[in-house]
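User: I want to check something. If I give you two sequences, will you return the structure for each one separately, not as a complex?

Assistant: Yes, each is folded on its own. Here is the first sequence with its structure:
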Amino acid sequence: MRKLLAALSLALLATPALADPPKAVPNSMPQVQLTFAPVVKRIAPAVVNVYARSIVQAPMNPFFSDPLFSQLFGGNPGMRQRVQQSLGSGVIVRGDGVILTNNHVVQGGTDIVVALSDKREFKAKVLLADPRTDLAVLKIDTKGETMPTVPFGDSDKVQVGDLVLAVGDPFGVGQTVTMGIVSALARTQVSASDYQFFIQTDAAINPGNSGGALVTTDGKLAGINTAIYSRSGGSIGIGFAIPSNLARRVVEGAMGGGVKLAWVGVDGQSVTADIAASLGIAVPNGVLLKSVYPGGPAANAGLHVGDVIFSVDGQPTNDMQSLNYRIATHKAGDVVAMHVHLGRDAADIKVTLALPPENPPRQAQTIAGRNPLTGAKVANLSPAVATELQMPLMARGVVIMSVADGTPSGGYGFQPGDIVRGVNGVEITNVGQLVRALNGANAWSLVVDRGGQRLALNVQG
């Protein structure tokens, strides 16, 4: 499996529409010698540095971090606070000081500072931080000044072979511009975010470039530089950017009270050659549906288990990541066109998207008291919760949403996404049952489902 290092510090009118101008490669030396300086001069002031400072607990001596020491003497003796700082980049996308960057740049930060290209610094407020997309939206107080911006481009119009510029602050050396081409589109196995769908480029991207701009030669934002594939930590010409169409949705969500990504209500898998042959599909493309949520958008449009989705609005969908991305760039209530395979017949259908339902209600709470799950935040699974945690569509039960460091739940190795199936022989189906089972015992025998595997834990009080 490839190993990826996230780069941390990684209107319609009645008249006919004009066609995009044809693209051409340089055919003479003067054309080859053309400069990108005017584009850089225009966009560079809108690319900023982002510094995120956080305070972390660290042991004064490695001996104190030994679990046996803590068990014998209690607490966390010898711990001290340490200031940790991460460096990344960002892009001003609105003149009133709205900035787009990566979530991993600001995650955990309590003091966010934005430095402009003219060296002015501003304290920034985090309007939204979305781990699912690995995007964050910041806001600085411009005191009425209109800031330079990089306008959003249409990432669906980007083609393999297009020239692009990457702008950011690699390794903290200062604002740097690199050039390359779009090496590939629709990379979906990068694992840098839940909505995996990336533009790949060979423009040099290094630690510190995270959150910076990937820009087309006409000065439009094509994507947000997010990650690199590297064995050394430096650029080897394989960088990844989140497409601007998804980034635009996140910014819209941040300005409107939160990101509510549209949902179609299916789970599926890529169509292999064997599956294609069995279904009479000439070329192994599309997503074979393994589950369809009853009453969801797909089900209401007539899709069933075993059907295949080939495209959304004319854009191919060859795995769940690409399907999820295409849906996420829309809003709930939007109608999308799908080319599908129903049974053994091809068809074009319309699907009205929605938000994932929260049924049953999540009843989220953090487990307290004296038990192995103390410090874990749990909730009832629903399509909404399953979507947030990127879990199977039909998953049910009580799921661990997060685990706090330094608590029993963290010490026992519980992880977000674990489903608590039983406590002391009692089947757990909702949060209330779990709380009662934990609080009414002095010893605990827990059964947990982790990625389809059953794990058991026995703890004496």
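And separately, the second sequence with its own structure:
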Amino acid sequence: MKNILFALVYVAVVFCCPKTGRSQNATLSLQGILVQDNGQAALDSTYQLTFKLWKSATSTLPADLVWSDVFNGVKVTGGKYNVILGSGAALTAPFNQAYYLGVSLGSGSGAEYMPRPRLTAAPAGLALLGTGNEFTSGAAVGIGTTSPAASAILDINSTAKGLLIPRMTDAQKKAIGQPDAGTVVYQTDLLKGFYYYDGARWQHITGSVRQVGESYGGGIIFYVDSKGQHGLIAAETDQSTGVAWGCSGTPITHAYGTKRGSGLANTQSIIDSCSTSGIPARLCDELVLNGYSDWFLPTKDELDLMYDNLKAVGLGGFSNASYWSSSSVSGTDAWSQNFNGGAQNSSAKTSSFRVRAIRRF
């Protein structure tokens, strides 16, 4: 092989170094590729390779040579090899400037591959600690730029590529153990999009326009108006796993509303006419959840919206069971909905069904 083609795949300073930029002992983990004159990968074998750090891309003057070392028995498989510079001859170069890497076969007298790959200036404290890389220096780090903005800890510069953050399902997102406030992910299922953790719960990033399925206003949105500014929010959990509607046989004159928007009035009418504690309307009216106290029992149509927009698409944590509405049918019956299929029924008020509170925004 007369020529060596070297591809720098990964570089990492794995020893903490002082902030002064003075000479330090460091190691560089490098992966390279050897090819033959015909362009094919070098035969699987072991080779003697020499690595040098230069101040110049082309100079061969001794004054421009910063460091060199000969590696014997470098294993090459499929053309690829791995070495750690600094594991032999101490790598005591001041990493506050750029260097050029020279690679040649043999003990150093052979021709180097040109042009030499450029190693950009590294941050003063890049360390491999435990299972993650940690920048121990406060210096700005640049990707795609050698002059990162002083106001940024990380400056990414590109006109052809974007930043790709972790992508995961809703279940995988929720399985993140003790996420820190400010953690951001992209959710790939259900209500797709970017989410951030606010220190208490995951929030969908939507700007000023609200969306169905978004965690907002103390619960999860199940209806929004055409402008995305107002709508209805369901509590994130049930307020009861089974309770009677209450006061069977007592006429509730003003609780027959079934349409969207009647739930609050229905709930107040039930409370005014039925003093029984622990009934669905009272559980919702007395609820204080996530800083909000204006909850009420949904109407027949509002309950159906919760089923269609949340339960049917796997949101809201609903059970496959029946839920009460605030819509009375008669002195003895009220509307309920089976969330295992969505059927709405006129049910005896003595029946024991689940309760889910809602609120407006």
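Because they were folded independently, the notes below concern the second chain alone. Helices lie at 170-174, 263-273, 280-285, 300-309. The two ends are 73 Å apart (CA to CA).
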